[in-house]
Amino acid sequence: MNRLRLTLAAVLFVPPLLHAQQLDLLIRNGSVLDGSGSPAVRADIGIRGDRIVLIEPHIRRKATRVIDATGLIVTPGFIDPHTHTAADLSDLKRAHNEPYLMQGVTTVVTGNDGDSPTDIAATLAKWKQQGIGTNAALFIGQGTVRREVMQMSDAAPTPAQLTQMKSLVETAMNGGAIGLSTGLYYAPGSYAKTEEVIELAKVAAQHGGLYDTHLRDESSYTIGLLASVRETLRIGQEAHIPVMISHIKALGADVWGQSTQVIALIDDARTHGVNVTASEYPYTASGTSVTDSLVPRWAEADGKLLANLTDPALHTRLLKEMNENLVRRGGADSLLMTNAKDKSILGKTLAQVAKERNETPIDAAIQIIQAGGSSVASFNMKDTDIEAFMRQPWVMTCSDGSAGHPRKYGTFPRKLRVYVYDKPVISLPFAIRSSTSLPAEVLGLKARGLLKPGYFADVLVFDPKTIRDLATYESPRVLSTGVRYLTVNGQLAVDEGQLTPVLAGRPLTH
Ligand SMILES: [Zn+2]
Asked: What is the dihedral of CA 48, 50, 52, 58, to 10 degrees?
């Protein structure tokens, strides 16, 4: 009775100033990691509109909604600097970006690997108008730009073509791209020499952009892993642009253990003023396709892949190089078919498909490509390399999420479960920083990545006992568990572990 009377009194006699300071959301009693790498503190977080307004112990303010985070961990929403979500976000049925929200991710970057929408401004405008579940930023892809101007030609550009490519990058940067991405391993990006890439990177640099790269070679295919890292550092130096190496790894037996040399190269460059960082996903398999993992790039030039596969004049050379690439990848047992038109091969390794058909693995691979190709999980990494990279203060978390690989649904919870709680390899504050303030800083995202008054209220509340990935190579599309609450720009996108209908994300521009 007394309490009721007091409440009524408070409602009736609230001074105007105090009323204005009422909170929309109050997250109480959580163990708060602010994303900077500092240890956890016990604090309450007050949110009004799209911003964090207060972080302190025992906030005494009225709030429309109060969440009790006792026993839970409160961090900034995760930021994923490398995804393949452009098509998801543009399709209203998938625009919630549920696989990411359920990992605690509030911001995704896409357009990586040199492959992006051509019209950056129009894509960002569509997302704004239609609504998206997470915040999202875009790179302009060098492969996209090259294809636009030169199709699948492996020639060097004429001066006019180079000018045209530079102007496409310029338009994209003016349209809100956060930088230039390359996929120098893939066709047609791979047809560009270093100097061509530097010219385009200079344009992005003039707009304060970032250079993001899938290295020319993460293995021993062409110039090798170490030379590819050196190429990236040269691009950074000569174009005066910060560089981010995407999904850093040592791919294949030939380069296992080279994480040591890669880390030394990068540390040395950093001490000499090159702004270089990297991202990484916590899986021993990469996600690619039968074509990209086995077929040499020359066979894809000018869009003649299918013709070249059956050209008798090329047959000996093609078989020899595809065989070498298969050895590099760890053999036919290490390629698992994960997404294909021909459903009969799903869940089988290349070795199994070959055996069923009574073919050699390479002939089976060629048949698969002729039937429309297949995504593969390619088991080619060592945990020792993964862990060595993960310990570096310049390494962020990324999913590189793609169809058929569990990383799209599991990356961020998996890093916490396996590498923080189970093994452990890194501390919780270090892991949270690698998924929040570090990518925000590298990507130039303003007022995100930290829990701080004035910052956007992208806030994650997770349960340390239950946070984990459930997606596997066999069932890659299973949502993660453990995310209890998640706000995107102050609105609850996950509430009591359930996705809400709101589309609170925003397109983010540079
Ligand atoms: Zn990539």
From this structure: 30
